[in-house]
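Input.
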Amino acid sequence: MHGPAHLIALDVRRADSRRRMWIALALNAAMVLVEVVGGILTGSLAVLADAGHLLSDVGAIGLGLLAAALASKPGVGRRTFGYQRSEVLAALANGLLLVAVGVAVAVAAVGRLGDPPSIDGVGVLALGLFGLAGNFAAALVLAGGERRDLNLEGVLRHSVADALGSLGVVLAGAVVLAGGPAAVDPVVGILIAALVLASSWRLIVEPFDVLMEAAPPGLEVEEIGTAICSEPGVRSVHDLHVWTVTAGFAALAAHVVVAADADRDLVRRRLELLLGERFGLEHTTLQIEEEVVEALLEVENAPRRP
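Output.
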């Protein structure tokens, strides 16, 4: 069962996510332009690292918008679920992109530790404050959306990592202005790289779980099976599968064995109601099997004497 209300809610969530991502895209594009120019003028690796991460954000948001548009297309032909998992693939791609950016920044920062160049502290501080304000605004817009949306969450984590990176740039500029060592710039670059790598973890693990068709977080398959078997007339359940098609769209399929005198349609309706209200599973496929038929199948499949 996959009701119209569920589909409408999914479409509303995607429309809201797209609107928020367009706003974040505009903010990030403006910040990239300013920080690339500013990083070159000030000679700061921390600023250029932050600009590189911002540039990855622009690509990440563009990928997220494309995935959201594809996911809204209805299922046709062999793709009966449409392109809904494009959101999951986009989240995974964004996670891998974050890893690549983090590694690149770390390598460049380590290379500068031995001979850090002089930087313009005032310019670095000003650029850091500008980036911090822009990233905070973008993160605030994105955080107001549906956090279960892996696609939106991927873009949000890019923005949060950028905000932390901008905070590091502010720190580097302040230290240099206070007469501190120029080595603070590559050190901050390494810290930014570590934050970027840390923020990529969920974006790799959760999409991988979805693609491997693991049960959604918070749903215990054994508990669902026990609840199904507790319904009057149900004898057992087998071939129970619970998985996620895309964020906010969990599905279940199972073979349910019922008593021979049970009303099969009534049992199915009660189970659909139970699964929807208690576990939030609106897309269910239940094959009802009578107990007598199950017993006959066991006899037929039993080994025979030669």
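The radius of gyration is 26 Å.
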